[in-house]
Each structure stands twice: as structure tokens, then as C-alpha cells.
Design brief:
The structure holds two protein chains of two kinds. By secondary structure, chain A is mainly alpha-helical. Chain A has a domain at 287-372 and 400-522. Chain A is built from 21 helices and four strands. Chain A has a two-stranded antiparallel ribbon. In chain A, a hairpin with a 4-residue loop joins strand 1 (60-61) and strand 2 (66-67). In chain A, helix 7 (164-195) packs across helix 10, helix 16 runs antiparallel to helix 18 (445-475) and helix 17 packs antiparallel against helix 18 (445-475). By secondary structure, chain B is an all-alpha fold. Chain B has a single domain, classed as Orthogonal Bundle (Helix Hairpins), CATH 1.10.287. Chain B contains three helices and no strands. Chain B has helices spanning 2-20, 25-45, 71-101. The chains are: A mainly alpha, B mainly alpha.
Chain lengths: 543, 112
């Protein structure tokens, strides 16, 4: 039993949410305690599995100390004929991020949001399934399918809680993503038409040998495919929908959407060095310049948006763009040391943004009393009248405990988003910028310095904007309403921010992991040979 | 045949793009459907255009030149199913938006 479990551990992050989601569909909406318990249990199990998978992916084998790439043959057909799942350090890292953020958002939602509409938990599990599948698959068309699973769940979650604002933003979100999906299909079919394969490892083998007369078709296919990912990642000018949609989504949904925009970044991070890396012959470095220029433009657009946002939700949405832009530019530079910094930055910014989206909703409750009296949620509130009374009896200006705790969390996430010491946001930006300034790829100096200036400037803009918002939310209202915040709503935010703190403390081992992952991504020979040479199970006596 | 197929894909996608850029939700959904048809035909054509050849190997002849590539056909099938589902979902959102705002404009309100 245990051996079977370990053998099939790679597919569990897909199967477990699928089964849990299907099971939740059968339970009546009124038994929400049971539904929430099942959903949380499944997601906790997902976190455990993801951590186990990181351990597997980080295990070294052989004399060279190269980490093993675990290939799971679906249907026991060898690659490139069957669809494969591939577990390596990058996919394991993304799985851990997804499961932790998913668990935090799910715990947050239990307080009230999961009852704001039907089938929240089912959709949430399907979203996790789609994300896990997209991170694990080693096949381009299978990636499309998991993208669509993720998106279909996200369309419904986007509309969760209903309301005119959400429906309008959701309508735009759906149209944009449907259009992007057709780009995905066109790109995939062009690449298939030229190379005759959809397996990523096999594609990497065949791309250098594509004859000159069909190479333009291949590069067109790659570029069109890239557009589909860039829409998801939110590169300027494909991102005008993103801040509105993320600000309109319910808080736990917006929190998990923080990793949704990283799916596009993840795919580019994996496929750019694999398909169009140094070994790709004439196509080497395809699109790198577009990524650098687009990344810088995205950071500028996001930073201006951050500075000009009045509502906290929009501020968070534009912060997603800044994070995406930074990552895209780092991918465009196509160098292992920069990618290592980018990986660390991706982890910390995803967790910080997830926490911030949830925090925004808690803070907004203080500013808008009407938001705190949503009909669905009244039953969820405990009777905390006693606490409020005790605070009011004191003399002088006191800051209530809830506000103080929220304020501390706000300050911490502000430090993370602006990239100031002592938290992991600073470590991430430092790693990224020091690798960029060293300029190992020999890009023109003005490009490097523009990027550095823009990244530092975006941090400054974020700090100014967050300071302004923080003062307005926590210090200005003397007669302000104390928001009612449950422990289950506060805890996920605090946990995510504490994790970011831990990431700063354990920056050494984490950067080691990131550096090894980046080095592995930029030397795809290991990936290719491990995937293509995986033997079938149960044939010729080998396990 | 190549010319006919290329023209069909071109007309479908061009009409689809034009409709997608129109302000009414109904036009948008028809546009998306037309683009999806064009794209499906496009995927189909990526396996090569052959008349009267089977996609399934029967075992009698082993020469691959006697068959049409079956993979694009499987891909089209998947794409059709997914496109069908997402179009249905979009249709629901379209109706919800119409009901909530009383307008079929994509922005939920009539332009001034």
C-alpha cells in the first residue's frame, strides 16, 4: 500500500483535489461545516504531498550530485508517445507555493466567503487541480487542457459572491482569457505542424534541427504561444483587465489568483530556456528582447498604477503587475544567476500578495461599515461586544487591538511589497538586482540600468502609496469603526507573512535551492534525457 | 483544396475578430465561436491535407504514408469540447450581466 502511494505520489496533487472536489459536489450546501472540513483536510494533505515532492525533487543521485527528475508515464506509454508528468525542482516549488497559498485562502474563506455562493469549495479544489496539473505536465497540449481546467474554475470563482461589479469584471476576464486560449491553440498547432511532437523534452531535441524553410513558422508558433502566456502573466499591453478583475474578486479568490498570474510566468520560465535557450540553434534567444522591454513597460505601468490607486484592492492588483513585470524582465535576461533571484522573488511576492489581498478586505471593513454587514455573514460573527466595551472605557486615544494587529500586518506586507529590509522582499530584490548588475549576459549597459532603476523606483512608488493608504486606514479615522475580524480570517494572513519572515531567516538554503533550480533550467540536457529515457513500468522485468 | 480551407479559416477568423471588437455581448460570443471554428479547422490542417485516407492503422498496410496523422484530429476533438463548455459558461455570464445591468453592452452600461 505504502509503496503504491510513493510510486504514484507525483499524480496525487492532481487526483486528490479532483476526488475531493467531486465528493464536495455531492454534499448539500447546508452542511457547510462538513464541506469546509473536507476541503481543508484535502488541502492540508496537498501541502504535505507538495512538501514530500520537494524532498523527492531535491534528492541527489549519482556521483555528479544532479537532482533527479521524476517522470510519471500516464498510461505507461513511454515519452514522447504518451503524456508524461514531470516532477523537478521548479514544479515542486510551484506546487508548494500553490498548496500553501490555497490552504491560507481556504481557511480565510471559511469565515464567510464560502457561503456567499454555491459550490465554492468544489470550484476551489478544481482550481487547485488545474494549477497542479499545469505545473506537473510535460506535454504542451496537456498544458492547454490544465490551463482550461484552471480557467474554467477561475471564471466561476471570479463571479463568486455575485454583484454587478464582479459580473462586469468577470465578463471581461472571461472574454480576454477565451481569446488567449485561441492563441494558445494556434501556437500549439503551428509548433506541432512544424516539429510533429508535443512532448516538451522531445520538442527541445527537435527544435535545433528544424529546417530553415519552416523555421519562421516555428518561431511564429512560439511567439503566438508566448502571447497566450503573457496575457495570463499580465504583461503590458495585455494587462488592462487584470487590476479590475483582481480587485473585484472576493478576497480569498483574489488571494489564490495571485498564483494564477504566476502560471504564465512559470511556463515562460520553463519553456524559454528549454525551447529557445542556448542549444536551440538559430532560434536561440527568441523573444528575449520582447520580454525585457515588455517587462520594463509592465513594471512602469504597474508602479504608476500603484501610485495612483485610491482603493486598496486596485493597489494590490497593480502590485501583481509590478511583480509579473519584474519576473518577465528577469526571464528575458536568460541567465541562471538572474533566474535564481527571480525564483526567490516569485516565492516571496506570491505569498506576500496573497496575504495582502486578504488583508485588504479586512482593512476595508473598517472603512466601509456597510461591507461588514453582508447578510450572509451575520451568523459567522462571534459576540465580541465585551471586547469593544472594554476598549471604549479607556481614556485618551487608544488603538483597538484589532486595528493594531491589522496595522502590523499591513506594515509587514508593505515592507514585503516595497522590498525593504529586514524581510524576504528585500532579500529577493537584492538577489535579483545584484545578479542583474553583474550583467553576466553582456547586455547593453543602458538596458541593465534602466531595469535596475525601474525595479528600485517601483519599490519606492509602492512604499509611498502604501504609506498613504496605511495612514488613511489606521491613523486618520479617530471615530472609525472597529472591524470585526475573526481569528480564522486573521490567522492565514499572519501565517503567510510569518512564512515570508522565515524565508528571510532561511534565505541561505532557499537561495541554494533557487540557484540549483535555475542552473538546471538553463542546462536542459538533464531534463530532456531523464524524460525521454524513462522506462515503462512492468515491462522487461524492471520496476 | 488548400485554397478553399485557407479561405474558410481566414473568413471565419476575420469575421470573428470583427465581431469580437463590437460592443454587444451577443456579438462578442458569436465572434468567439467563429474564431474557435477557424482555429479548429486550422489545427486540423496542421496534420496535412489528404483526401480519402484513414487515420486509424488497420494492420494490413504498415506504410505511414498511407494514413493521415490522427493526432490533430484528437486535438480538435479536445478543443471542441473545451470550447463548447467555455462558450456555454460565457453564455450564462452574458445573461446574468444582461439581467443585472439591463444592458447588453460589454461594459454593462450604454455609452453616453
Amino acid at each position: 500500500m505504502m509503496a503504491i502511494l510513493i510510486d504514484n505520489l507525483v499524480i496525487l496533487p492532481i487526483v486528490l483535489p479532483l476526488v475531493a472536489g467531486a465528493l464536495l459536489l455531492l454534499i448539500d450546501e447546508r452542511r457547510h461545516a462538513l464541506k469546509a472540513a473536507i476541503a481543508i483536510a484535502a488541502t492540508v494533505a496537498l501541502v504535505v504531498i507538495a512538501i514530500a515532492l520537494v524532498t523527492i525533487a531535491d534528492t541527489r543521485v549519482g556521483a555528479t550530485g544532479v537532482a533527479k527528475v521524476t517522470t510519471y508515464l500516464l498510461g505507461n506509454w513511454p515519452a514522447p508517445f504518451g503524456i508524461v508528468l514531470v516532477l523537478d525542482r521548479l514544479s515542486a516549488l510551484m506546487l508548494v507555493l500553490t498548496s500553501i497559498l490555497g490552504l491560507a485562502a481556504l481557511i480565510f474563506s471559511v469565515a464567510r466567503w464560502d457561503r456567499a455562493g454555491p459550490h465554492f469549495h468544489t470550484l476551489f479544489q478544481f482550481l487547485l487541480m488545474g494549477l497542479a496539473g499545469a505545473f506537473l505536465t510535460g506535454d504542451l497540449f496537456n498544458l492547454f487542457v490544465f490551463f482550461e481546467v484552471t480557467l474554467a474554475a477561475s471564471y466561476a470563482l471570479m463571479l463568486h459572491g455575485s454583484g454587478q461589479l464582479r459580473v462586469r469584471a468577470g465578463l471581461h476576464y472571461i472574454v480576454i482569457n477565451l481569446a488567449a486560449s485561441t492563441f494558445f491553440l494556434i501556437g500549439v498547432s503551428l509548433i506541432y505542424g512544424v516539429t510533429g511532437t508535443l512532448n516538451m523534452a522531445d520538442l527541445a531535441v527537435r527544435i535545433p534541427d528544424v529546417p530553415a524553410e519552416t523555421r519562421p513558422l516555428l518561431e511564429t508558433g512560439g511567439a503566438i504561444l508566448g502571447i497566450a502566456f503573457l496575457v495570463k502573466a499580465g504583461m503590458w499591453p495585455l494587462n488592462f483587465w487584470l487590476p479590475t478583475a483582481y480587485a473585484a474578486a472576493a478576497a480569498p479568490v483574489a488571494a489564490i489568483f495571485a498564483i494564477l498570474s504566476k502560471v504564465g510566468v512559470y511556463v515562460l520560465m520553463r519553456l524559454a530556456p528549454l525551447f529557445f535557450g542556448a542549444g536551440a540553434g538559430e532560434s536561440a534567444g527568441l523573444g528575449d528582447w520582447a520580454l525585457i522591454v515588455g517587462g520594463i513597460a509592465t513594471i512602469v505601468y504597474g508602479a504608476i498604477g500603484v501610485l495612483s490607486s485610491q482603493a486598496l484592492g486596485r493597489l494590490a492588483g497593480f502590485s501583481v503587475l509590478v511583480s509579473s513585470g519584474t519576473l518577465l524582465a528577469a526571464i528575458g535576461l536568460a541567465e541562471a544567476s538572474i533566474t535564481a533571484g527571480a525564483l526567490y522573488y516569485m516565492a516571496t511576492s506570491t505569498l506576500a500578495l496573497g496575504a495582502f489581498f486578504m488583508l485588504v478586505e479586512l482593512v476595508d471593513r473598517a472603512q466601509d461599515p456597510a461591507a461588514a454587514v453582508l447578510s450572509v455573514t451575520l451568523e459567522a460573527y462571534g459576540d465580541d461586544g465585551a471586547d469593544t466595551a472594554a476598549v471604549e472605557e479607556e481614556v485618551g486615544v487608544t488603538i483597538p487591538g484589532t486595528i493594531a494587529a491589522l496595522g502590523i500586518c499591513f506594515a509587514v506586507s508593505g515592507l514585503l511589497l516595497a522590498g525593504l529590509p529586514p524581510l524576504s522582499g528585500f532579500v529577493a530584490k537584492f538577489a535579483l538586482l545584484s545578479a542583474t548588475i553583474a550583467n553576466p549576459t553582456g547586455e547593453p549597459g543602458w538596458v541593465i540600468w534602466t531595469l535596475v532603476a525601474v525595479i528600485i523606483g517601483s519599490g519606492l512608488f509602492a512604499m509611498v502609496s502604501l504609506l498613504r493608504a496605511g495612514i488613511r486606514a489606521f491613523w486618520a479615522p479617530i471615530e472609525g469603526v472597529v472591524p470585526r475580524v475573526l481569528v480564522v480570517e486573521f490567522a492565514p494572513v499572519a501565517i503567510l507573512l510569518t512564512l515570508c519572515g522565515c524565508m528571510a531567516v532561511f534565505a541561505g538554503p532557499l537561495m541554494r535551492y533557487a540557484e540549483e533550480t535555475a542552473a538546471y533550467l538553463h542546462a536542459p540536457a538533464v531534463y530532456i534525457s531523464d524524460v525521454l529515457e524513462t522506462p515503462r513500468k512492468g515491462m522487461d522485468g524492471t520496476p | 483544396m488548400e485554397l478553399t480551407l485557407a479561405a474558410a479559416i481566414g473568413v471565419l477568423v476575420a469575421s470573428g475578430v470583427w465581431l469580437l471588437l463590437r460592443p454587444r455581448t451577443y456579438q462578442v460570443i458569436i465572434g468567439l465561436s467563429l474564431i474557435a471554428y477557424g482555429v479548429n479547422l486550422f489545427i486540423f490542417s496542421m496534420g496535412g491535407l489528404r483526401m480519402d485516407v484513414p487515420p486509424v492503422v488497420d494492420g494490413a498496410t504498415v506504410d505511414p504514408a498511407q494514413y493521415i496523422d490522427p493526432l490533430p484530429q484528437a486535438l480538435v476533438l479536445t478543443a471542441i469540447v473545451i470550447g463548447f463548455a467555455t462558450t456555454a459558461l460565457f453564455l450564462v455570464v452574458l445573461l446574468v450581466s444582461r439581467g443585472m445591468t439591463g444592458s447588453d453592452h460589454v461594459d454593462g452600461r450604454e455609452p453616453k
